[in-house]
Amino acid sequence: MSKSHPHKARKRFGQNFLHDMGIIRRIVACIAPKEGQRIVEIGPGKGALTEGIISVTKRMDVVELDRDLIPILRVNLFRYPDLTVHEADAMKFDFESLANEGNIRVVGNLPYNISTPLIFHLLSFAEKIDDMHFMLQKEVVDRLAARPGDNLYGRLSVMAQYYCRVESLFIVGPESFDPPPKVDSAIVRMMPHKTLPFVANDLKMLEDMVRIGFQQRRKTLRNNYKGVLNDEDFAALGIDPSLRPERLDVEDFVNIANHVSKKD
After folding, report:
1. How many CB atoms neighbour CB 260 within 10 A?
2. pTM to 2 decimal places
3. Does domain 203-263 have CATH number 3.40.50.150?
4. Correct CATH for 11-192 of 3.40.50.150, 3.40.50.2020, 3.40.50.1100, 3.40.718.10
5. Binding-site residues for S-adenosyl-L-methionine
6. What is its main location (predicted)?
7. Binding site per annotation, positions
């Protein structure tokens, strides 16, 4: 890969370029790309991971916001004419537009500063996505994969697991990046459910009920849902109102949202 195009990582884009070839190979092995698959990479940077994938798939879409990186990417990957570069903000990008031939797979080393809202944006296209593999701050991966009762279990855990099966794969240390971040990173696999295990009748209501539930996570459900659910409602739901929100699983939150929808 060409190294004749220096590019200083930009703080405003949250850039940390992965350069450890051993880690890159391990990520590509986890993704297991196949020729002809429609794989979309968010924030390809200089193309380190991109090359490992497109060398197998022969074609690829990448979404890059930093316009100064695009010519570097094109030079580094000049041998792959079927690389399509979308100069765009992934937070506003219509990923469904790339799913015209079937579902897409999404990968990326996501900027720490926008990783959570970006994941929520991607989940809105979950029906069109086969799987997602992301490099994220380790704490974000831990939150995504957390189970009921874990300290990090919260809004992100519930909403991600409503849509996907979430699996934390392995940790990546700061020394694998340039510049090295101040925290550990981790690789996560998110596989959207083909059929939702629990169906919310109103997604906005589910989002609202999860947000309200975790607004004051040290307080009981009775306190957090005051004015929304009374003791009769909790009894009908079979949920103990003296519990804290982190004790509820995804099904419980879906049941709460559906119950409140019916009341309204």
Report:
1. 20
2. 0.90
3. no
4. 3.40.50.150
5. 16, 18, 43, 64, 89, 109
6. cytoplasm
7. 16, 18, 43, 64, 89, 109
